[in-house]
């Protein structure tokens, strides 16, 4: 294990040091932007070969649930931020009490950690959320089932990701069995009305401690089996009014919750009783988010640069678009890894699509694992979506889904 | 000193390892692109705190003129490439004899190392160069002076940069004294006719070992005291015909010299005897180049990604532009470093110009030292130039050259 924490050679004197808790692709992509800003991130990583640790020279190998490990990486850093939401609130409060600058603050972050806390808070500030309830017994679940006419969704309050921790029981028996099992296992639960989705949207903003807020255009996001597989920027065919409402909603949440850094507001789009498009909040993420990866190539300031600027309380960057449409398609490990090495698959993609921007996370193959994404820009939404999907699919399967040969 | 060479944790299994000889900003900016491609560069660095070493996890501290140091960093790498031209040819030939993949090849690279070799070679292939001569004595210099009517420029054949190694003696006495002194010091020399410059241009291309060539639009570059201070892409007001000739010239040179990776062809634009714009080659650089920094923000594939793709023999990337004009302005250390810390100066720039892309190299202040650059995109050439200059100037002096306050 290489433990190079506090490596002064990784930072030029006078530039801010950002400590990032977490070693995944989000931290990795923060590092690329940090480098261009003349900095270099310091990492609390779980392992030296992890996605972000591979590309950093100031690494502390440790455990983000251990306060001493957090203290060590935080010491001397200008700010501590995150590539995930799982650091215990009490540790963050302890760091703050010791004078450490933590962004976002735990009071904001808890809304991205606990789905029930978030919904209660959003309801308080008047933000639209689907009907929901705390579930502490099978009876609670049954009552909610009846109240929403059986369209129910059970969620673990904490620790879910990529659809893990979300269940859609189809009848009361299934619901009861599920809830009984989860409660017995000690999983804190909530229930939410199952929304008749038209599609999912994501409204992303960045907010600095000084209160400046900048919003990217709303994007459409596509989930497959609970995992984000595609984001299309801007959201195709969205009305000016709905786009504006979505952005204003995200701005309001950022302001009311005093979020700092980048925040994604995952939204459900559904038809209201009059058949008009309406929105409700599904989830908050207080960090760069999968639905914002398109910004790396699609606009002037990426979410990773913006997050660093925001947590360092720099003025925020322009989000002017580089092209009419940018599509992000996730690269998820397939059932097995093709024999053709990844480098050759990349060559295959570029031979056919020289404008495809390939972003890989330095991760090895595992079925369903996010190992990278493709950004592709163009003028035509449908064609760009199709092409981005083809590229992502080729990186996984080493063959063109449309039968193209070459 | 952290010596982490051969650190397997810095690379995910299966992805190519690119060894870069040199630790300056060019290697640093290759690293940001390598990261996004799922790789990480291995570095032969002079010091652990150097620009590229700060941001890399696989570093060998050594000397690029020492064959054993070169061997150690090359071992197990898929390709060896460079962020400067100063590696001795005999060492590169030795590495190749040992089976190492070196790109570009020394046979090409020598044309970027020796100004006289380059000019002879270019003349052979019919590329336009100003009249020149080898200078081995004061008499040679005097004869050349007479032949070009006194418009003479003396150049050290090797090792020059940022205008060091270029002299413009104004009369024969000055010339004789200069040449005598330089020859006595053992500096191999050449003379070139001093061209009545209209401006300087740069034509950049990338070529892969397979022979694919991609060219960026020709840019105008501005030199101040021999140092590149600005690049404007595409070159303002250039005729379609001259732009095409410039690009074709760079393509021809890349092909004839079997260049691999990125090459900049620095050009003089001057008026021919009929008063029409004409071009001649000044210099070749076989690596990413200062006049190509605009590509990081101004087009789909940056010169750093393209260089990695080219030396790895991947298909090359699209060079479609992100906006009508992109201006790169260099940030050069001023006479003294202002009291206002760099982070605050960055904030000042962004407050006024939220679209300014700041790229810093992790270097400390030294008068005249290149410590970073600004890229700014826009629609209006003159305004964008003015604004980019203002930003670069503010980063150096912590005050707005146009008197703006705030
Ligand atoms: N109330 C609901 N009605 C309909 N579909 C829902 C509802 N809640 C969740 N879903 C579906 O399940 C997916 C995953 O849910 P959710 O976002 O809560 O899970 P997660 O694991 O926290 O996801 P992520 O990793 O995207 O944050 C959603 O993107 C949506 O497609
Ligand atoms: N023959 C010439 N006629 C007129 N000006 C010249 C001539 N040669 C060089 N110059 C001027 O001097 C500058 C530096 O020259 P040159 O590019 O040869 O030096 P260098 O130190 O190798 O530069 P670089 O770092 O840009 O490669 C040129 O950009 C140009 O402005």
Task: Provide an overview of this structure.
The structure is a homodimer of 406-residue chains. The first copy, chain A, has 406 residues and is an alpha+beta fold. Chain A folds into three domains: 8-102, 3-Layer(aba) Sandwich (Rossmann fold), CATH 3.40.50; 131-193, 2-Layer Sandwich (Dna Ligase, domain 1); 197-397, D-amino Acid Aminotransferase, Chain A, domain 1. In chain A, 32% of the residues lie in helices and 24% in strands. Chain A contains twelve helices and 17 strands. Chain A has helices spanning 25-36, 67-74, 89-97, 106-113, 115-124, 138-147, 172-184, 240-256, 295-298, 303-311, 342-352, 381-397, and strands at 18-21, 42-45, 59-61, 79-82, 132-135, 152-156, 166-167, 189-193, 197-207, 213-215, 219-224, 227-233, 261-271, 277-285, 325-332, 357-360, 370-378. In chain A, the strands form three sheets. In chain A, strands 9, 10, 11, 12, 13, 14, 15, 16 and 17 form a nine-stranded antiparallel beta sheet that branches. In chain A, strands 3-2-1-4 form a four-stranded parallel beta sheet, covered by helices on one side. In chain A, α1 crosses α10 (303-311) and α11 packs antiparallel against α12. Chain A is globular, with a radius of gyration of 21 Å. The relative contact order of chain A is 0.11. Bound molecules: adenosine-5'-triphosphate (2 copies). One adenosine-5'-triphosphate is lined by residues 130, 153, 155, 160-166, 192, 194-195, 197, 200, 223, 226, 228, 266, 282-283 of chain B. One adenosine-5'-triphosphate (ATP) is lined by residues 130, 153, 155, 160-166, 192, 194-195, 197, 200, 223, 226, 228, 266, 282-283 of chain B. Chains A, B: One of its GO terms (cellular component) is cytosol. Chains A, B: It is an enzyme of class 6 (ligase). Chains A, B: Catalyzes the ATP-dependent conversion of 5-aminoimidazole ribonucleotide (AIR) and HCO(3)- to N5-carboxyaminoimidazole ribonucleotide (N5-CAIR). Chains A, B: Homodimer. Chains A, B: Keywords: ATP-binding, Ligase, Nucleotide-binding, Purine biosynthesis.
